[in-house]
Amino acid sequence: MKRLLTIEFLKIWRNRASRTLTLAYFILLTFIALIASIKFNLGPIELNVAEMGIFNFPFIWHFNTYVAAILKFFLAVVIVSMMANEYSYGTLKQNLIDGLSKREFITSKFLMVVAFAAVSTVFVFVISLILGLIFSSYNELGIIFSDLEYLLAYFVKLVGFFSFCLFLGILIKRSAFALGFLLIWNIIEGIISGLLHFKVFPNSNYADYFTQLLPLEAMSDLIVEPITRLSVIKSIGNQIGVDNIKDYSVHPLGLLIVIAWTIIFVISSYKLLLKRDL
Fold it and tell me: N or C: which end of the chain has fewer CB within 10 A?
């Protein structure tokens, strides 16, 4: 396992574009801290974003994982390009000639996917902990380490999304077309969701039951947007007569759906590689 992971790490690190994108991703994650310096002037009232409670424990786990998940496309490009380079440079064929089995090849790619997700999760945990200890109004241990399920959801979400990117990289072979298909698939899911909600099941919750089974939708549902959870936003909503009944929790069923899709993507990648004449 260590050998396979080392091979993949060296491939990425020796590629300038992949190395730059990977470093840019983790650098951008640290920029979450800059949100604390954002201020709004509403006439005589000055609002500091940090003072609105976004860095309070345990809300910070929800907020930071949601924001960090938006940046996952940087690593998606790395993973898709990683597979495209295997075909372009002939390293896949050479690895197989050198004795690496196709099972080991897919295993090495999946291990890299898990490693990216794990390092990113630890990175977000450390940043969130530091920001929370600086800005949070609550410092009791029980409060600090509550709602950590958002970190689990973040990890599962990244593994699922990167596994999908890995599958597309093997299926399409060209990074630009693979990323284009990812965008098209996102649009397709949006169309399916719209049809189910407004045409097929306009007055029931059945549309939600079906859309949560779509891969990208399932990943998106793991971490619901956190902004409307803020007390200041709730107060504004109550003043204008808007009740917030959104469920912000992480559901075990959602985790299982994404894990199931991850398994499907990895197995499909392996089956595709077995059938393909390299």
Answer: N
CA–CA distance, 19 with 78 (Å, rounded to integer)? 8
pLDDT of the residue at 49: 63
3-state secondary structure the chain: CHHHHHHHHHHHHCCHHHHHHHHHHHHHHHHHHHHHHCEEEECCEEEEHHHHCCCCCCHHHHHHHHHHHHCHHHHHHHHHHHHHHHHHCCHHHHHHHCCCCHHHHHHHHHHHHHHHHHHHHHHHHHHHHHHHHHHCCCCCHHHHCCCCHHHHHHHHHHHHHHHHHHHHHHHHCCHHHHHHHHHHHHHHHHHHHHHHHHHHCCCCCHHHHHHCCCHHHHHHHHCCCCHHHCHHHHHHHHHCCCCCCCCCCCCHHHHHHHHHHHHHHHHHHHHHHHHCCC
Question: Mind listing the pLDDT tens digit for each residue in 13-50?
Answer: 777 878 888 888 888 888 877 765 566 555 555 566 66
Sign for the CA dihedral angle at 76, 77, 82, 83 comes to positive
Would you say 228 and 125 are in contact if contact means Cβ atoms under 8 Å apart? no
Q: Which pTM does this prediction carry?
A: 0.90
Measured between alpha carbons, how far is 53 from 118 in angstroms, rounded to an integer? 27
Contact yes or no for 68/120 (Cβ under 8 A): yes
Name every residue whose Cβ is closer than 8 Å to that of residue 224 and which is 6 or more positions away in sequence.
Answer: 66, 246, 247, 248
